[in-house]
């Protein structure tokens, strides 16, 4: 293997003596910065890595690096230091002269590269931590994540000189990459399709009897806790780090994003471990040093800005719940204010005698907003001298979907896709970079106050786990989709539990299934019942891990899970991580997981990917697909059209493709960890990318009938399918067609095989998604630039059925089958024209 890490410097220095008074402990602060808790160790250090070479060398994919691929910190090189700080969001020093302590080296364990999503480096820091100087100890693995778009947008944070150097190379590289891939896509289309009139014919056998049923669950969604999809997204909790646990369990700790109102003469704030909740002991102590005479008129205290601002709307109600304790009387104002606190949108007081709050006490306040601000904050302030503790401070809008805690607008956007299944909660989120940071369902159930929360080390942010195991099943039920639970199988990106020791993980999975579908008297089912859902959830699918097939122990671990689950729940369908599309699996499974992220033109041509797959064996679950390369922008039409071609192929191969979902579903634009995504949002607004809208074209497909169809003609950039389906008591034939090329294509639809009771097929509805430029994207300022446009089709008798496919477009045409009570003869070929 060619190492892409430029090992310019030197071999690891021989181990040095460490004179650490205490071993240095690494942890993440709430900003995602990796810090050593000895403050003098922070904020210097860097990498000697040639990132562009990494990108060039690896192409898309993942590599495990060898021992020689150490990366030596190079503090001399400012650019490296800035890269580390800016893109890896972390700063670390490896050497402290005064103390003669050193980190020996960084080691890059693995590098993932997705052309448009960026580079992910899995890094271990090793340090000398023993006095004999002969041992190094891995401390922590870190994901250093470098989104390609961030390479440019985040440069403003760098100093001008190093920015310029770096910007120049990134620009040249990006330009070359973009021009190559876009030209590859577009130029090829040009050269091949220079004929003046492009004409294709879709021969459709419209008989349902020769058609084939499409699985009921073909199209669904994949919800991963990535990009703040849940915490700071679908889950409506407004407070971030509500339990003060995000700074870690060592005290004092960072309380970010909480901040202090007041200065050191008036207030002292610190965390301690005095919480009444056993699984999350950190609480906030606030010593107010001023009183009503000396405090600022608006008081002193703390505020929480939520996830890049709270969306507070006039006339809406917000429930604030918090736990408080004090050694004196308290008089605390709970307020929603503008982002700098100058404007109060809603406020109420918590007043209590010392005797009433000498032990932890739960307090609730209902606030009604008298103004609107989508970057508001929550404040806890007072002008009373006191020592007061707070913990588990929550602020939820009263108006959430069915009161179940889901943000209404995001829920609706998801529901509009009519998903037949929902896969959750990840993705890499399930695995973790380290097992210690994986999503473990038992930590996420029960009262919200008692959940410890966890740091998702793959996407590098903290979640309070308000959206937990229970809420995911509730979400599936509310949205009418079959839940597909992905659980950790004892394997993370870095460490793994060997098969001989995996039984506790198997038991955890069995317990998780019992939680979902056990009766309300069962040990775990009773916890679900206590959470308000005595009826079991309908769990029929589980996935053993995510993308773990190539990792050590996968097969062994998988079989332990498979056997135990089939034994206890024979009806549950089990999904393997191993790809069975090109060769049979070597283990039993009901489905195999298939993920694909690639260039638009490649995904378009993958409409034939499953044509030659064996019809025997488990079905494919295409649980993650997307165009995510340099030609995808942050979600453009070109990407969506590539996906459209692929989806038509999946629909046509739905005898062996059982389910499919785009990834990722959501991105909070303030913390884009993956690009592109289907639904983009901030605290108050949202829009669908063209990829989102393409999925809406397939909402009638699940459970429909695939009609036999053949496409002929002189364009290789058209794919089409035909289905029939029923809705509201009417029968339709639906033709869907993508034109990936830049020329108009005439499509002639020739239908045969119609049931003789049908008197005619009338035009009904056409929907088109296109734009003047294939690189166009939606945005907050123009959220509907590229959305499907619907119109009614008019049909004229005795003409051929001709439709037009505009350049770079996706279209669907719904034809209503009209039945007569009096049987009428119909001709085989339907001769209608749509005036479009
Ligand atoms: O969808 C984003 C990520 O892509 C998922 O977490 C992972 O499964 C895949 O690598």
UniProtKB/TrEMBL annotation:
GO BP annotations, alphabetical order: L-arabinose metabolic process
Catalytic function, reaction form: Hydrolysis of terminal non-reducing alpha-L-arabinofuranoside residues in alpha-L-arabinosides
Keyword Cytoplasm: no
Superkingdom of this protein's organism: Eukaryota
Domain named Alpha-L-arabinofuranosidase C-terminal: residues: 623-809
This protein's record includes keyword Hydrolase: yes
One Gene Ontology MF term: cysteine-type endopeptidase inhibitor activity
Protein keywords: Extracellular matrix, Glycoprotein, Hydrolase, Protease inhibitor, Secreted, Signal, Thiol protease inhibitor
InterPro entries linked: Alpha-L-AF_C (IPR010720), ASD1_cat (IPR055235), Cystatin-related_pln (IPR006525), Cystatin_dom (IPR000010), Cystatin_sf (IPR046350), Galactose-bd-like_sf (IPR008979), GH (IPR017853), Glyco_hydro_b (IPR013780)
Subcellular location(s) per record: Secreted, Extracellular space, Extracellular matrix
EC number: 3.2.1.55
Alphabetized Pfam families for the sequence: Alpha-L-AF_C (PF06964), ASD1_dom (PF22848), Cystatin (PF00031)
Stored CDD domains: CY
Enzyme class: hydrolase
NCBIfam families, per the entry: Atha_cystat_rel
Family: Belongs to the glycosyl hydrolase 51 family.
PANTHER family named among the record's database cross-references: ALPHA-L-ARABINOFURANOSIDASE 1 (PTHR31776), ALPHA-L-ARABINOFURANOSIDASE 2 (PTHR31776:SF21)
Protein name per Swiss-Prot or TrEMBL: non-reducing end alpha-L-arabinofuranosidase
Native source species: Arabis nemorensis
